[in-house]
Design goal:
Layout lengths: L7 H16 L16 H21 L4 H15 L5 H23 L18 H4 L8 H13 L5 H4 L9 H6 L14 H21 L18 H5 L6 H4 L3 H19 L11 H8 L4 H9 L6 H23 L4 H4 L2
């Protein structure tokens, strides 16, 4: 389903997040389910599946090894010798051996990766294209230090502003306050926070030191996608004070920012704000498909027609949700 050239980090992130759910104790969940049983047979199956998911994540996107390392360390910290490590190793090594065999067959050695054959300027982290770290002079390094979290070029929190609410989670955890996160119990949130912040910090440090400075055609910080679901587990902890006013503001800001990529696709380049209104005037409230139709098939298509088609389609979706999904049941209507 997912193209290995574009969406592989979405798939590999899903794999790592699923593996993380498997290693949480059954007592972590507000909603108990038989799949989280700690019976020995189920425990071994969980360990095997945990390793297989991590191995497939690395095989899908090699830089996911950073996330895998964090998850393995945190699993060892949480479970210690109780965890069936040999089964996890079996699941992990199965996919790593397949990758090594693929490298040997295609490139002559297990340690030679496809990244070595990519041309300069392709969508590959600089560290995978060169043999040295991309260290920069101090002024440039300080500028990138701001760009990584907050800059409009590819800043992580700029393109995902709602995740800013994951930062105060440390304070809420220290005070033992906050709202439980979705289906995760309050007592398990410190472990979730350690994993989330460790993944976030490790990815940030790796891509900062490796010389990452944006990629061609990139909208947002695609290298940081694996940190999003883990940090999102911490966001509801702040709802006690943020849900009424802060969340709507950040959600609205996120909608405005992400709408540029959704509406204009490849045209949504940098600098971010300079051409936003110009694109709206040229394409209207478009989407990626309608923008391509105007570019390649119907260059005379008016922005008003594009807007009417797109907004009409969104209205139909909204009407369906309102009528069949969000409609109250008879029990909910009763006082």
């Amino acid at each position: 389903i997912y193209s290995p050239a574009i969406y592989h980090r979405v798939f590999s992130t899903f794999l790592c997040f699923s593996a993380f759910i498997l290693v949480l104790p059954r007592s972590s969940f507000i909603i108990h389910h038989s799949s989280f049983s700690v019976q020995r047979s189920a425990f071994i199956l969980r360990a095997l599946l945990f390793g297989a998911l991590l191995g497939l994540a690395i095989a899908t996107s090699y830089d996911m090894a950073i996330v895998v390392a964090v998850l393995l360390i945190c699993t060892g910290w949480q479970w210690g010798r109780l965890w069936p490590w040999k089964w996890t190793a079996a699941g992990l090594m199965f996919f790593l051996i397949l990758v090594a065999a693929y490298h040997t067959a295609c490139f002559g050695a297990p340690w030679i990766t496809p990244y070595a054959t990519r041309i300069e300027g392709s969508v590959v982290p600089p560290l995978f294209r060169t043999s040295h770290f991309g260290l920069r002079p101090l002024p440039s390094a300080l500028g990138r230090l701001f760009e990584f979290p907050f800059g409009s070029r590819y800043g992580f929190f700029f393109y995902s502003p709602l995740l800013l609410l994951a930062l105060p989670a440390v304070w809420d955890l220290l005070r033992a306050k906050g709202t439980p996160s979705f289906i995760i119990r309050q007592s398990s949130l410190p472990h979730v926070a350690v994993v989330a912040y460790a993944i976030f910090a490790s990815l940030m440090a790796f891509h900062f030191v490796s010389g990452y400075d944006g990629l061609p055609g990139e909208f947002g910080f695609r290298m940081m996608k694996p940190a999003i679901p883990f940090l999102m587990l911490l966001v509801p902890m702040s709802y006690r004070w943020s849900y009424r006013y802060v969340v709507p503001v950040l959600a609205g800001l996120s909608a405005v920012i992400l709408a540029k990529g959704v509406m204009f696709g490849i045209h949504a380049g940098r600098p971010f704000w300079d051409d936003y209104l110009d694109l709206v005037s040229r394409y209207g409230f478009a989407n990626y498909t309608l923008a391509n139709i105007k570019d390649h098939l119907r260059p005379d298509l008016p922005p008003s027609v594009i807007s009417a088609i797109h907004l009409g389609a969104l209205s139909l979706v909204g009407l369906f949700l309102w009528r069949f999904v969000w409609r109250k049941t008879d029990e909910e209507r009763q006082p």
